[in-house]
């Protein structure tokens, strides 16, 4: 899912994103709650109409952004108290009000408020926050059932970096019953091996017949390994943010377009890529645009990176359908990592 934090995929129009093949995007409840506000968006016909996006939208609960962006954050049984990073105003976001905001946005898939667990985190605190998440999600489900508007609600598994807490969280969330299940609290600074270990611990208790969403991940390698273990859905700002910073994803690994070696390089970013950028522009031109600070650099780079990610996911689905995902995975590493 391309990330449209403020109700837009930065530098692209909704038509661009649709043409790239995206069937669903993610929008951010925290940011849209603060600006322009759910009441205004509802008045404008909901987020689909407001941003002119005709396909599916998943909205997060705002919990992670409160944890990572707010000037002040305190989690209580009632909800999350925080001060806006924009103007310092104080707010309380509860499991019920988070779902009310998402209903006003009119999203198709909604996420319950959860308590984000930092890394590292002492076991006692991780246990407290995991239990709080379960209680919040039970309240969220009741609030969502009252909405009865055809949306879907996913449950979120927490547990920090403790296997038994991951198991406990998965069992408790599964008992509540949701349309799909998300795995939260990973890719928050922990080593990659630990992330994969906690991912496996979470997945082992989730049903395979429901979609599983790994929140905030990540690199092509992380996505590949998560799919290998049973994950279905992903979101991450990486392809769009890296595009704006001049880092481009290719079939042979990443490149930094500002490097001097591309100064007079007439080749496209990736000779195997069929995106608009690769069909029309050279590495030399893209380097020039980036170093000159031209806005077109952000647009062309973002088109390429999103095309790469969406094509990558398409190829993964085809490999699974054709029962050759193991060879697809092996070939990916042979090509991008020299076989390592």
Q: How does the major sheet shape up?
A: 8 strands, parallel
- Number of discrete helical segments: 15
Strand-pairing-aware structural class = alpha/beta
Instruction: Report how far apart the termini are.
Output: 28 Å
Provide the CATH topology of the domain at 111-235: TIM Barrel
CATH superfamily of the domain at 111-235: Aldolase class I
Task: For the largest sheet, list the strands in their spatial order.
Answer: 1-2-3-7-8-9-10-11
CATH class of the domain at 111-235 reads Alpha Beta
Query: What is the CATH architecture term of the domain at 111-235?
Result: Alpha-Beta Barrel
> Helical residue percent?
40-55%
Query: What portion of residues belong to β-strands?
Result: 5-15%
